[in-house]
Amino acid sequence: MKNEFGRFVKENAIQIMGVVVIILNLWLVSKLAPLVQSIALIDQRVQAVEENYIGHSEIDSRLESVITSLDRIEAKLDRHLER
Fold first, then answer.
1. The pLDDT value given to residue 61
2. How many CB atoms lie within 10 A of CB 74?
3. Tens of pLDDT along 50-78?
4. Are 16 and 9 in contact (CB under 8 A)?
5. Could you give the angle at the alpha carbon of 10 between the alpha carbons of 12 and 24, nearest 5°?
6. Would the CA dihedral through 35, 37, 40, 44 be positive or negative?
7. pLDDT in tens, 11-45
8. Domain ranges of the chain
9. What is the pLDDT of residue 55?
10. C-beta separation of 27 from 19 below 8 A
11. pTM above 0.70?
């Protein structure tokens, strides 16, 4: 009996290792699946933050141009009032 089992293992070693590798792959995939979902969620949040930042950046540049225009208007008014 022991001798038959050893011979069976030797004759089918590649198939046994293949089954073990398949089982390990399935176990690993089951552990990594939640991680993939978390990465997708983090990526979505990062994209939302980037889009929000780009919007603020555009608003900031427009605000800077408005401030510059107001400074020029103020300077012109000051010159006009000094006359």
1. 82
2. 10
3. 777 766 777 778 888 899 999 999 998 88
4. yes
5. 55
6. negative
7. 888 999 999 999 999 999 998 888 888 898 999 99
8. 2-82
9. 65
10. no
11. no
**pLDDT above 80 for 1:** no
Residue 42 CA: distances (Å) to CA of 19, 38, 39, 46, 55: 35, 6, 5, 6, 20
- In degrees, rounded to 5, the angle at the alpha carbon of residue 28 between the alpha carbons of residues 35 and 5 is 170
Spatial neighbors of 16 by CB under 8 A, at least 6 apart, are 9
C-alpha dihedral, 62 to 67 to 69 to 75, nearest 10°: -170
Structure tokens at 67: 């401030």
Range 45-69 burial, b when 16+ CB lie within 10 A, else e: eeeeeeeeeeeeeeeeeeeeeeeee
In sequence order, what are the residues at sequence separation of 6 or more whose Cβ sits closer than 8 angstroms to the Cβ of residue 9?
Answer: 16
